[in-house]
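Inputs:
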Amino acid sequence: MKKVTVGVDIGGTNTAIGIVDVDGNVLEKGNILTPDHGDAGKYISDLASSIKEMINSVNEDIEVVGIGIGAPNGNYYNGTIEHAPNLSFEGVVPFVDMLKKEFPGIDAIALTNDANAAAIGEMIYGGAKGMKNFAMFTLGTGVGSGLVVNGDLVYGSDGFAGECGHTTLVPNGRLCGCGGLGHLEAYCSAPGMKRTAFELLAKYNATDSMLADKSFNELDSKMIYDAAVAGDKVALEVFELTGMYLGQGLADTVHHLSPEAIFLFGGPTAAGDLIFKPVREHMEKHLLPVFKGKVKILPSELDAGNAAIVGSSALAWKELEG
Amino acid sequence: MKKVTVGVDIGGTNTAIGIVDVDGNVLEKGNILTPDHGDAGKYISDLASSIKEMINSVNEDIEVVGIGIGAPNGNYYNGTIEHAPNLSFEGVVPFVDMLKKEFPGIDAIALTNDANAAAIGEMIYGGAKGMKNFAMFTLGTGVGSGLVVNGDLVYGSDGFAGECGHTTLVPNGRLCGCGGLGHLEAYCSAPGMKRTAFELLAKYNATDSMLADKSFNELDSKMIYDAAVAGDKVALEVFELTGMYLGQGLADTVHHLSPEAIFLFGGPTAAGDLIFKPVREHMEKHLLPVFKGKVKILPSELDAGNAAIVGSSALAWKELEG
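Outputs:
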C-alpha cells in the first residue's frame, strides 16, 4: 500500500484538495467552494465528504496517513482558524478538532497558513530538501512568508510567526492592505508592482510607455512583465525597484536568521532574472560583511499549479516525522 | 561540591572572567587585558592561567563543569572567532579547540557573540526563564540582539544569526558603523541617540536647550537622560524618536518570530518609561492586528555590572542541558 497524505488549501472562494504521495506527486485533485456565509460545521462536513470521495477515486492501493491544511490565519498550535478576514467563519474555529471527528483513524491532522505550508512543501519536496535554515517568500496578491530554523517551521509564541510581508520598508510609506504604512507587501506584491508602475508613469510623465494606456484597475503584473521584455523603460524600472524593495526586506530577514537560502514563489518570480538579479544585488548591498555572498536567492521548485495542495500535504508528512 | 561554570567576556580592551553558580551568583570575578597585538596563542594561555587562579581562589568546594565565552564575531558552531574587527587576532581563531587543550577535563566549552550570550543569560537566570520564544536587544555603543525560538538560540546557517541592529529602518538613512545606511544601530544605540539630539538641535535652532552647550564629542546618552528628566524638550524628543525607531525595528522582529517578549538591556534602558513607553506605543502601531497587545517589552533582569560574564557562563549551562 502506498502511503499518501491529503493537502487542503482553503482560499477565500475556493478550497483545493489533493491526494499527494511522499515524492510530492498529486494522485488526485479537485475543488469545492469555500462558503461565503454560514458557520464552519456544514463546510467541514462537506469537505470531509469530498476528501473521502477523492480517496475512493484513486486508482491505486493507498493508505491515507495524514491531512495537512493551509488556511488564512491558521494557528498551528491549536489547529484553529482565528478571525480570518477573508472567510465567513466568525471567531475561532477549532478546525482540526472538528475534522478529526470525521477522520477518527488519522492522527496526523495539522493546519497552518498557506505561506508556512509552502515553506514546508519546499522542505519536503522542493529545493530546500536537507536545508535546516531557510526562508520562503510567496509573492502574489499579498506577500506571505514561512521561516525555517533548525529544521522546523517557526510558529512563534502564538502560532502566527512568519509575517515578513508586514515588516516596514519605508517609514510612513504606502498604505498596506492591513492598514499599516510602508510594509513590504505594499511594494513587492503584484499590486505593489502596479503601484510602482503608476508612480513611475507620474514621475516621468511617460506618455510613450507601453503601460500608459492602461487604467489602474486594468494594469497587472503580467502586462508589466510583457512590457519589460519588450524593452519598456518604465516596466524595466518597476522590476529594478521591486528588486530594490524586496532586497532590502530579505536583508532584514538575513540579519535575523542567517538562512542558507531564501526561496521566492509566485507570479512575479516567473520574470526570472528581471526580478532575481535586482533582488540579489540590493540584498547584498544591505548585508553585513559576514553575510555577503553567502545567502542563495532561489526560485521555488514547487509546481505553481499544485503548490498550495502540495505544500499543505507536506505539513502532514512533517507531522509524521515527529 | 557546588557545580559552577566560568563566564568569559572578550571585549576590545578588557576580558572579564567570572565563576558563576547555577543561580547566576558570581562567586569570583576579575579582568585581564585583551591584547592589542599578536596572535591568540599567548592570550589563550594567559586566559587559561587566570581562569585557573580564579578557580583556586574561590572559598567554596566547587566543580567547574563548563566554560562559556562571549566574543565579537564568535561562531557558535565552530567555536571560532572570525575576522573580529576590534580584536588583534587575524583570520579565523579556533578558540574553543585551543582552550579545550588547557582544560582537558571540561567538555562543555562554547562560544558565541556577546548579545547571544546575554539572551541565554536572560533565559537561564533572568526574566525569560521558561520562555520558549523571545528576543533580547542590547543597546550600547552598538545594538546587538539574540533570538530564541523553540527554546534554542537562533544561530542560523553559519553561526552568526541575530544581527537585528543591522536591519534597515530608513532607506538611505544614517551611515552605520558597518558602512550600511539607515540601520537600526545608527538610530537606537547610545551614539544614535546623540545623533538624534544633534539633528533636533539643528532642526529647532534650539539655543536654549540644555544640550546646546555640548560638543558632538562631549555629549553622551546620560546627559540626554538628565536633560530629559529636567524637562528639556529636545532631550524628551530624543527619547520619543528613539522609541519610534526602536518600536519600528521590534515590530519587524515580531513579524518574523512572534516572540512572547522582547527584553531590552543596556545604558539607555535605565531611562525607564522615557524609553519603554514610546517603544511600546510605536511597536504596537506597526503590528498586524493578530500581534497587537500580545508582545511584552521588558527590561532585562540581568545585573548590568555582571551581565557579560553571567551571560557567557549561561552558555555553558545551556550546553550542559543538551
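Remarks. Chain B has a mean pLDDT of 95. Residues 233-257 of chain B form the longest helix (25 residues).
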